[in-house]
């Protein structure tokens, strides 16, 4: 079911486009799905996306073309439900993107407990996830800011090509976090399986709720600091004192060009060889 309130007619739309405005700047739409939906796939270009926990699944948009519009004007919005999967996409042709994209457009999604899988691909803007608990989360942002707060995930994949990734109180079993150019901040996060984090150019600041973990840390061109102590080299392989040798959660962090600052709840001790599997030898 969907209902839309469109404030501008087709003729005004064309005039607005020529003036460098989005013809849908004042358009609000509401999309709903039934309780059987377990997966959501979002594909968006330039907008702000907010995803939060709610009692039912729904999508609210502001500043985007209605999905049921038959007007062909270079703005494209689609919404469909196939079985237990909902797919929502909003895009613009290149000329419309340059002439009349709406920087104030917003997509708000509420996710109920029945939802299990979330995939978001956003070209440019802000992506915010808060208070949701899912089996898998896949969030890809080309340019902008990615924020996760109070999120729980069995599998988490978060990627930012250019911008910042800010994760607070995020619990995950396994996770992959990459930032090509920008900063990675993790505060109050916890890993029970394995975390692979990488920053190509920028900095990584991580404050983890970890008392037992195997660590594989690498800062190629920058300072490496663990629990307030600067490492003598940019490579450090350790385990916490509460971790049985060769066992425990695994945290791998690499920064190619920039600094890495990691704080843990537990003290650490250096081990001679970080194992892919099996036992580790102490110094």
From TrEMBL:
UniProt protein name: DUF4097 domain-containing protein
DUF4097 domain ranges (all copies): 113-246
Recorded superkingdom: Bacteria
